[in-house]
Write a structure and sequence with these properties.
The chain has 179 residues and is α+β, with helices and mostly antiparallel strands. Helices cover 45% and strands 13% of the residues. The chain contains five helices and six strands; from the N terminus they run H-E-E-H-E-H-E-H-E-H-E. Strands 3-6-4-5 form a four-stranded mixed beta sheet. A two-stranded antiparallel ribbon has the order 1-2. Helix 4 links the parallel strand 4 and strand 5. The longest helix is centred in the first third of the chain and has 23 residues. The N and C termini lie far apart (62 Å).
């Protein structure tokens, strides 16, 4: 039985491999025409060319790059009101367009405070700042489900709290695309 089965399997495998080599690996096999004399493929009169525009991909990549750069929105001492800047408006316009195209992505908003006041007060104030920015974004047309807020209090300063300038830099909310 093995004397017949092994050669039969070899022949079947050879036929299957030949078919695969000639018909599956060559794109013209099922649709191309052949010149009978030398078996050359006759090219179609007008080749089909698909034009792909890379601009949206570049825009998407640039938007994502901008959104991964954290944007700091600054607040006045003991307040949770912000001043809109051109940089903030540009960031928000880009984020709005990007999140509309990618509903599965989210923005992370983290509130911060300087060292003035108690830890409890600063934690509350930093969360209020993050929520204020979230509400501002919702008013601008963002989806609430795409905005994540948290408050860090005075736990993550970006400057020294020993000077008024350093404290001003620490009174902020940071916005970035969530990982």
């Amino acid at each position: 039985m093995n004397r017949i089965l092994i050669p039969l399997l070899i022949v079947l495998w050879s036929l299957l491999y030949s078919w695969f080599w000639n018909c599956e690996r060559k794109p013209h096999c099922s649709t191309g025409e052949y010149d009978g004399d030398n078996m050359a493929v006759i090219a179609p009169a007008e080749p089909e060319v698909e034009v792909v525009e890379p601009a949206p991909i570049l825009e998407d990549a640039a938007a994502e790059e901008l959104l991964f750069e954290p944007l700091d929105v600054y607040f006045e001492s003991a307040k949770s009101s912000i001043t809109r800047t051109e940089e903030l408006d540009n960031f928000l316009a880009t984020a709005k367009k990007y999140l509309a195209a990618h509903p599965d992505r989210k923005l992370n908003i983290v509130g911060h405070s300087d060292s003035d006041g108690t830890d409890v007060t600063n934690d509350r104030l930093s969360l209020e700042r993050a929520n204020l920015l979230k509400n501002l974004l919702i008013q601008d047309g963002f989806t609430a489900g795409q905005l994540i807020t948290s408050g860090m209090g005075e736990k993550a300063p970006i400057a020294s709290n020993d000077t008024p300038e350093g404290k001003a830099k620490n009174r902020r909310a940071t916005v970035r695309l969530a990982d």
